[in-house]
Each structure stands twice: as structure tokens, then as C-alpha cells.
């Protein structure tokens, strides 16, 4: 059986790189995979990659969730909340080294720079120092604008050296992210429950029952009282009215651990809608 893996495209994105790292990881865990074959399926947006799994067009999606410089990838958080029955199976942390790709002879002749908003933000210091007068345009992914470069020789794109190699494009500058230790966390998402035991993390999101003093504190105290550590908290607008938020938590415990079963039962008392995105382990990928 061939399993389709949805990721942000066109080919050569960091999300595709994360999907390939996931396949390598699976290969080293053959007992889990039963020797299935896989097909990489690029989608125009992160949201569409997740929708592909929700609609059973693909079995798996690999999506970016958080970057060490720029923080959360809102499209991933928002789409996970909107779609029901998606479960995180694994987190992958990948090092990210951006390159400037262009047919321009030098930085002086560049007039336009394109990339995914996350990549532009991760390189904003470098851009303002070395390309202070360029027009910066966000694109759906780091590889979307690469097809422009051959015709538009005063245009550059921020992407990976792997993408430059894939499309045989010239690299004008390397390692242009503002912080050298730049890395991004990706989630591997499927439509069925993760039945791997002893996961290290659980992610969930909730809306509070009323916008009153202490609403968030009460929910968080559930974990504090049980000695359960949180590794991230993020808020996103509910989009229903200004000033109303959803709260996303990453928790350092397995959803099936007795202590988490108790915590989640108690948490129901302090939440309006509670969505558990799943339990998973975290794999750190070293420089390839
Ligand atoms: O556009 C890509 O290549 C992506 O996969 C999104 C992204 C952009 C920048 C850093 C990590 C992921």
C-alpha cells in the first residue's frame, strides 16, 4: 500500500525536507511501518496539507508549527483547531539554514526578494543590512517564487541550499538567518489516534467558558497542582470577537499516563471547548 504524505510545496520546501526526515526515521523503526511505500504530495498551503488528511486524500501531513526565531506558525495552529479528528504522531526539530538564490551578479542589483513570511522574518536583520532598498514580498512557501528567477534577474528568493540544488539555481549568499541556531519544529499529523505508548508530549487547545478574571489561571493550575510541566503556551484569537482567545498548550506528559487522565478530566471544568491534538515523541534531526 502507498501512503501519501502531504506537505507544503512546490518540491524543495523545508516541510518536504521534514517529510523526508520522517521517512528516514520510519525506516529506522521498520517494526512500525510494515514496509509500506510512501508518496510525497506537495500542496499550495499548509492549511491545504492538513485538509488533505482530514478529507482522506493523504494519510499523513508534515507541517511546521514553531520556529526558534519567529515563533508559532499561525496557519498550522488555526487549521488544527478548525479541523476535527487530526492527531499529532511525532514532532521533528530541523535545523534551518537559509540561502539567497538569484541570477543577479551581485547583491547591489537585486530589487525584489520573495519568500515564506517565516523565512523573511528569520532573515529580516540580514535583509535590512545588506538589501536595505529591496521590495520584500511574502509567498506561500520558500520555493513558490523560484520559477521567477530565470526570467527576473533582479529578483531573489530565500530558500534552502537543497532547493537551489534541486532546481539548479545559483546561491548568492548562505547562512543568512539572523541567528545561526535557527530551527523549526514540525508535526507529523494523521487522522487516526497515535497508539505508540510512552509519548513525551501532549498538545491541546481550549477556549475558556467566560472572559472573567482567573479563567486561564484556573485551567493552568490543574497542571501546576499535579506537578505536570508545560513546555509552551500560545494564544490565538477565537475570531468570534476582538479580545477573545484560544489557548494552546504543549504538555510534558503522555495523554494515557494516569496523572494526565486526571488532569484532563479536571481541565474539562475550566474550559468551554477542549481539543486534544495528540500525544507524541520529539525527534531532533541533526544537520544533513
Ligand atoms: O516554505 C517552506 O519551505 C516551509 O516549509 C515553511 C517554512 C518556512 C521557513 C522555515 C520553516 C518552514
Overview of the structural elements:
By secondary structure, the chain is of the alpha/beta class. The protein has 3 domains: about 1-95 and about 180-190, Periplasmic binding protein-like II (D-Maltodextrin-Binding Protein, domain 2, 3-Layer(aba) Sandwich); about 100-175, 3-Layer(aba) Sandwich (D-Maltodextrin-Binding Protein, domain 2), CATH 3.40.190.10; about 200-280, ACT domain (Alpha-Beta Plaits). The protein has helices spanning about 15-25, 30-35, 45-55, 75-80, 115-120, 125-130, 160-165, 215-225, 260-265, and strands spanning about 1-10, 35-45, 60-65, 70, 85-95, 100, 110-115, 135-140, 155-160, 170-175, 185-190, 200-205, 230-235, 245-250, 275-285. The strands form 2 sheets. Strands 1, 2, 3, 4, 5, 11, 12, 13, 14 and 15 form a 10-stranded mixed beta sheet that branches. A 5-stranded mixed beta sheet has the order 8-7-9-6-10. Strand 13 and strand 14 (about 245-250) form a beta hairpin. Helix 3 (about 45-55) packs parallel to helix 4. The protein is globular. It starts with a strand and ends with a strand. The structure holds 3-phenylpyruvic acid (PPY). 3-phenylpyruvic acid (PPY) binds near residues 13, 15, 118 and 184. The site of 3-phenylpyruvic acid has 13 residues, from helix 1, strand 3 and helix 5. It comes from Cuspidothrix issatschenkoi CHARLIE-1.
Amino acid at each position: 500500500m502507498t501512503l501519501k504524505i502531504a506537505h507544503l510545496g512546490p518540491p524543495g520546501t523545508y516541510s518536504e525536507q521534514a517529510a523526508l526526515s520522517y521517512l528516514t526515521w520510519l525506516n529506522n523503526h521498520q517494526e512500525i511501518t510494515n514496509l509500506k511505500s510512501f508518496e510525497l504530495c506537495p500542496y499550495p498551503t499548509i492549511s491545504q496539507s492538513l485538509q488533505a488528511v482530514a478529507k482522506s486524500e493523504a494519510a499523513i501531513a508534515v507541517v511546521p508549527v514553531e520556529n526558534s526565531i519567529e515563533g508559532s506558525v499561525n496557519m498550522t495552529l488555526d487549521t488544527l483547531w478548525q479541523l476535527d479528528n487530526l492527531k499529532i504522531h511525532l514532532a521533528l526539530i530541523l535545523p534551518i539554514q537559509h540561502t539567497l538564490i538569484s541570477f543577479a551578479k551581485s547583491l547591489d542589483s537585486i530589487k525584489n526578494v520573495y519568500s515564506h513570511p517565516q523565512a523573511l522574518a528569520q532573515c529580516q536583520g540580514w535583509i535590512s543590512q545588506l538589501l536595505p532598498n529591496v521590495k520584500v514580498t511574502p509567498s506561500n512557501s520558500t520555493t513558490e517564487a523560484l520559477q521567477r528567477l530565470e526570467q527576473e534577474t533582479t529578483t531573489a528568493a530565500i530558500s534552502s541550499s537543497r532547493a537551489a540544488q534541486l532546481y539548479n539555481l545559483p546561491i548568492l549568499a548562505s547562512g543568512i538567518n539572523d541567528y545561526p541556531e535557527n530551527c523549526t519544529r514540525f508535526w507529523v499529523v494523521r487522522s487516526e489516534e497515535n497508539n505508540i505508548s510512552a509519548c513525551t508530549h501532549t498538545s491541546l487547545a481550549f477556549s475558556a467558558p467566560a472572559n472573567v478574571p482567573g479563567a486561564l489561571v484556573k485551567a493552568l493550575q490543574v497542571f501546576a497542582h499535579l506537578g505536570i510541566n508545560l513546555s509552551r503556551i500560545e494564544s490565538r484569537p477565537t475570531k468570534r470577537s476582538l479580545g477573545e482567545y484560544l489557548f494552546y498548550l504543549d504538555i510534558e506528559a503522555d495523554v494515557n499516563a494516569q496523572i494526565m487522565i486526571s488532569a484532563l478530566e479536571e481541565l474539562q471544568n475550566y474550559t468551554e471547548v477542549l481539543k486534544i491534538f495528540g500525544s507524541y515523541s520529539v525527534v531532533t534531526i541533526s544537520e544533513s
